[in-house]
Amino acid sequence: MYTLYSRPGSGGFVVEVALTMAGAPYEIVRVEKASPPAGYEKLSPLRQVPALTLPDGRTITESAAICLLLQETYPQVGIGPAAGTQDRPEFLRWMFFLSSMLYPTLMRFFFCERSTTDARGLEAVKQAAIVEADRGFQVVDEALSGRDWLAGGQKSIADVYLAMLAHWHPVADRPRDEWTNIVRVCEVLKRDPLVAKLNEVHRFW
Q1: What is the DSSP letter of 34?
Q2: Which residues are registered as beta bridge partners of 27?
Q3: Cα 77 to the chain's mean position, in Å?
Q4: For residues 179 and 175, what is the distance between their CA atoms, to the nearest angstrom?
Q5: What are the tens digits of pLDDT across the range 60-84?
Q6: What is the per-residue pLDDT across 179-192, written as a single tens digit (0 to 9) for each?
Q7: Burial of residue 204 (number of CB atoms within 10 Å: 0-12, 13-18, 19+)
Q8: Out of 16, 27, 87, 160, which residue is the most buried by the measure of CB atoms under 10 Å away?
Q9: Global confidence as pTM
């Protein structure tokens, strides 16, 4: 049994999708921002979600790392291309791009106070975050030109990750219209029964 520490609208969404795709048994512990469970910092030192306790009792954090572990544990269920396959390099590239470039950039907008000690600079931090996020999304949109999915011919958890981040965009809570390829991927995922079902709780769109 896995235990997923999460809350609606968080990065736990993509982990929940991966666990459900895998058919893995799991339970969810809701972690509120203002009042995490007692001792939660021992599981997640930054007190952030998601965190996943594995069947052997260990707990790991970082949504991309969790998804990659689940892909390796359940290689046949379509979470991502298996190691050694043609599409694996692109899958790894975009999982790390999304988690290391776009995710933290968006967090700088929503938690701008973490990026400056000058209260007068908060708005500048937020505006810079939007500019940088837009640059990253444009890179992804161009990469999707001429292909159906980020990792080649098959849908993967990287596409779900992208849709989640795109609907965190602070301007309109959705990808910009000019990112036509990202919009296309998101629209297809919205019709995916599994993704749509889990979105009923997370409400990204």
Answers
A1: S
A2: 3
A3: 19
A4: 7
A5: 999 999 999 999 999 999 999 999 9
A6: 999 999 999 999 99
A7: buried
A8: 160
A9: 0.96
